[in-house]
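pinned: reference chain
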Amino acid sequence: MLLNRLLARGRFRHVQVLAQLAELGSVRRTAEKVGMTQPGVTQILADLESLVGTPLFHRHARGVRPTAACADLLPLARQLLLGMGAAAEAVAQRRGLGEGVVRVVATTASVNGLLVRALPAFNDHDPSVQVHLKEDEIDDGLLAIARGQADMVCARRVDVAPEGWQFHALVPDRFVVVCAPDHPLARKRRVGWDQLAAHAWLPAPTGSIARAEFDARAAQFPAPPPLCQIITRVPSTTWALLRHRPLLTLVPFGVVRHLVESGELALVNQPDPMPLPPIGMLLPVQDMSPATARLADFLRQHAAQLNPQKEKGKPP
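pinned: its structure tokens
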């Protein structure tokens, strides 16, 4: 059976030569690319064709061209090489990082709602630990865990944690309505949805949790509110529009916390609670590095000091 022969006698060099020959179409260029002699590449190809029991390349004056059988094997060969490359990179990266580095993948809400303040404080507290921070979507964070490329993922609570990882809640979150500090509604002590419906809105992009919440609320408005026709996922554009136009937007507080605390944006004091799952961190259950453990402990302490009832920019 071909599968058994490949498992018993196949080698990684077979896979590499197959893929390079198909891509380059030349024994000489393949030999240069993989660091072998031309007779060595020819021998590897002969071994592989003997192993599968069929020719894999048509020979012609200018090189070689894949046969149909070769085309059947190429997707597997390329997938194996990609997987080996990713695994080798992850192992090399982990070996090079040592115990003093923590690789963190974080969503926008967890960066702005927690890490933008916590990490500088952690650097002052424990300057021996180097934090490599990458901002990305939660799906990319989970992929980084699967590839062994993350020591910690900061995000909103996930429905199912990856095998061997556990979610630790740190700070609560909720939807808020924000605007420029000089917006008329920013100065009011209490704002109902009927008042919110009378002002122009900057809606979040379709497909986001903020857009789903806004659409549900807007469906209860007596009339559709005016909408800004610039829809963007670029945060700097969103904040610029809010600062320079009389617009409202509904977002998770974690996304805008840093801007509210700095006074660049203001919260509208609407009374209805709009809770969200908490922001926290995904950590391995076992084999956590000492540096990761120190950062996790610091984030717990930092989060405990955050009081959501005393947010700067919230009307009294």
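why pinned: Residues 308-316 have pLDDT under 50 and may be disordered. The longest strand covers residues 165-179.
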